Amino acid sequence: MRIHRSFPFFLILAWLAACNPVAGTPSQAEAQPSPFVPVDSPPTSTILPFISPTPASSETPTLVPATPVPPIDTMRYAQNCDAVDRIPDVYERQFALEQMEFPTELSAEAQARLLFPVLVRPSCNMRTGNTPQAIVLHATRGGLVASISEFQERDKSSAHYMIDRDGQVYQLAPEGLVAFHVTCCLGAGGKVNEDYTQSIGIELVNKLYVNPDGFDGPIFEDYLESFGYRYWEDYPEAQIASLVILVEDITARWGIPLDKVIGHYQVNDNTDPGPALNLFWRRNGNPSRPPIFNLP
């Protein structure tokens, strides 16, 4: 996987100078339209907000229970992605992409249970029209930085969430948008017809099968030699704990049955997330482990 280089310092200085021009000198934003907003969008000098605005009211406010965060405006997010993807320079595009942060959709209860605050790393490899009916679990096969970098490249794959080995959760796209993490269709059983438009994708940082002589991380020895491999990188407890919190929150909010939490290998011809991630069965290997989830 390719890793983006850091945004050049001299371009950052140029950006700051454009945003804070010397008095009496026309700024770049005054001279020409902002490149980060679609041409058919209302005039603005910055990335459009993703939260639906709350209408003004003249009524006297009353004390009411706390309400959830307003839903993310997925159409506005898609419009901003269209603007970002028109930027030809890769570094300018990356800088604009990083300005598109949005609030995570995890509930306050779920966030309180996580070890770390959720971090947002926006990806524009998505489209509108997601109606989640399943959760598809993946393994990145590479490290965190390289995986996020690839998901942020133009016209690459993507997912909604990524969980690092230490349990840190990253959100890459709003759940109401289609992320490109699986291809149609599930096949036998027919749980979902168009998986990538009816699912939420979660990536776990993991190399999958490994050479035990050259790998210094935790290893699961699979006695069944699933997919023809005996040794797999194991999923740390902190990563599993975050996955459980994430899955429980998403299934509750979208009404997704637990038996529709599936591995990528159940959808496409893949090995991930591998036998080390024992969703509903006890692991037959070393170390053994009870099922991560218990079906009702």
Notes on the protein architecture:
This protein is an alpha/beta fold and 296 residues long. The protein has two domains: 27-48 and 71-100, no CATH class; 104-289, Peptidoglycan recognition protein-like (Lysozyme-like), CATH 3.40.80. The protein is built from seven helices and eleven strands. The chain has helices at 9-19, 28-31, 74-84, 90-98, 108-113, 144-152, 237-254; strands at 119-120, 126-128, 134-139, 161-163, 169-171, 177-179, 199-204, 219-222, 231-233, 261-263, 285-286. Strands 1-5-4-7-3-10 form a six-stranded mixed β-sheet, with helices on one face. Strand 8 (219-222) and strand 9 form a beta hairpin. The two termini are 40 Å apart. Residues 1-67 and 190-194 have low confidence and may be disordered.
Unreliable spans: 1-67, 190-194
Q: What is the third-level CATH name, the topology of the largest domain?
A: Lysozyme-like
Alpha carbon gyration radius:
22 Å
Biggest pleated-sheet summary: 6 strands, mixed
Structurally, how many domains make up the residues?
2
Overall pLDDT confidence: 78
The separation of the N and C termini measures 40 Å
Q: What overall form do the CA principal axes indicate?
A: globular
Helix and strand element order: HHHHHEEEHEEEEEEHEE
Task: Please name the CATH architecture of the largest domain.
Answer: 3-Layer(aba) Sandwich
Count of DSSP-assigned helices: 7
Please identify the structural class as seen in this structure.
Answer: alpha/beta
Strand content: 5-15%
The beta-strand count equals 11
Considering DSSP H and I runs of 4 or more, what fraction of the residues is helical? 10-25%
